[in-house]
Amino acid sequence: MQPIVVVVLVACVAEAAAFGVAAPPRPPRHRISRERRATKTLRSLRMGYDVDLRGKTAFVAGVADSTGYGWAICKALAEAGATVTVGTWPPVLGIFQKSLEAGKFDADAVLRDGSTMKIAGIYPLDAVFDVPEDVPPEVRANKRYAGLDGFTIAECQAAVARDHGKIDILVHSLANGPEVTKPLLETSRSGYLAASSASAYSFVSLVRHFAPIMNAGGSVVSLTYIASEKVVPGYGGGMSSAKASLESDTRTLAWETGRKYGVRVNTISAGPLKSRAASAINKMEEKSFIEIAIEYCKRNAPLQKDLESDEVGKTALYLLSDLSSAVTGVTMYVDNGIHAMGMVADANVAAIAAE
Ligand SMILES: NC(=O)c1ccc[n+]([C@@H]2O[C@H](COP(=O)([O-])OP(=O)(O)OC[C@H]3O[C@@H](n4cnc5c(N)ncnc54)[C@H](O)[C@@H]3O)[C@@H](O)[C@H]2O)c1
Using an 8 Å Cβ cutoff, are 12 and 39 in contact? Predict the structure, then answer.
């Protein structure tokens, strides 16, 4: 307790000087050295809470442009000094690589110190396939997969391990529901199972394959959405069910990977963001699903402001670093507080859609 009292004294003296108050008489020598020690302690305490991920390696699955949550998480990790690698869905891999090379994302890759984020490896990854035997011939023959090999989860893990050895951070930032535009009542069995496979089991499989190459103390984060627990009209095709599974699996995986590998598992329930994936959901009247969801949240959330992808990035950084060393199995909301509302101020979605 004592150092804290001394620190407060030091702070008061500094504050008085800042406001031009006459300096108090010079304290005796022994007090100066005690004060210096206290200042040093304060400085090292501040240092102690800096997030330093130098020497740590991250694999972020689900990055193909700079508009989504995956990119924002990569940036937050890079700011903290982590080596960042990504997994990209084969159909968009070529365009992502070409755009990166052409400098199309340069403006979005600038870090706070003025440097540019480096991606230390881009791995093809189709998270609906676990092992090569799972890939049907028509997928291999598809021109969007032509010339690509090693895009199943097991092969991707092997490639990351070959290039980087053990990793410390794993992020699942991907989802896909082929019938997302259909209400649940009209969703086919295959559509429902495809949403679950790409958006929920992909997480189980990713953790199952990557946890063995993670250092103890490592951390995993995925992204979920409030439609898992409350009805969000328009978020269809079994995607709401897939997100409910993802959240439940987060708790079970936290238990199992905590005991087996000393690795933590959490999920972030993020508010709406106009990413490429979200923009593809649906058109409702004049606006898309995501535009309406963003406007609805702005009108009704406790914090009436835009939700920036960097805000999810910062929370991911907390969950992926030692700052959260005792946090596992949680669903953490980063949504300006909309999840807390039972009765909203302006619920007129139809009016928002028609505006
Ligand atoms: N945008 C939102 O409003 C919002 C809100 C809450 C949660 N989320 C979640 O955030 C995560 C990231 O999505 P985003 O909105 O940032 O969009 P995004 O487009 O940046 O990310 C989705 C990624 O998933 C990839 N993908 C699709 N199918 C895949 C597969 N089979 N294998 C590998 N990758 C595949 C896409 O190529 C894309 O890169 C998703 O889990 C999404 O559900 C998004």
Answer: no
Query: Which atom in ligand 1 lies closest to the alpha carbon of residue 126?
Result: 32
175 CB less than 6 Å from ligand 1? yes
What spacing in Å lies between the alpha carbon of 127 and ligand 1's midpoint? 12
Q: Two tokens at 314?
A: 């910062």
Q: Is the CB of 76 within 6 Å of ligand 1?
A: no
Catalytic residue at 225? yes
- Checking if the pLDDT of 3 tops 60, the result is no
How far apart, in Å, are the Cα atoms of 47 and each of 5, 25, 219? 20, 31, 22
The three state secondary structure string of the chain is CHHHHHHHHHHHHHHHHHCCCCCCCCCCHHHHHHHHHHHHHHHHHHHHCCCCCCCCEEEEECCCCCCCHHHHHHHHHHHCCCEEEEEECHHHHHHHHHHHHCCCCHHHHECCCCCECCCCEEEECCCCCCCHHHCCHHHHHCCCCCCCCCCCHHHHHHHHHHHHCCEEEEEECCCCCCCCCCCHHHCCHHHHHHHHHHHHHHHHHHHHHHHHHEEEEEEEEEEECHHHCCCCCCCCCCHHHHHHHHHHHHHHHHHHHHHHHCCEEEEEEECCCCCHHHHCCCEECCEEHHHHHHHHHHHHCCCCCCCCHHHHHHHHHHHHCHHHCCCCCCEEEECCCHHHCCCCCCCCHHHHHHC
| Stretch among 95-109, 128-142, 335-349 having the lowest mean pLDDT | 335-349
Residues composing the chain: 355
Summarised one tens digit per residue, pLDDT across range 8-21 is 333 333 333 333 33
All domains in the chain, ordered by first residue: 2-45 (no CATH), 57-337 (3.40.50.720)
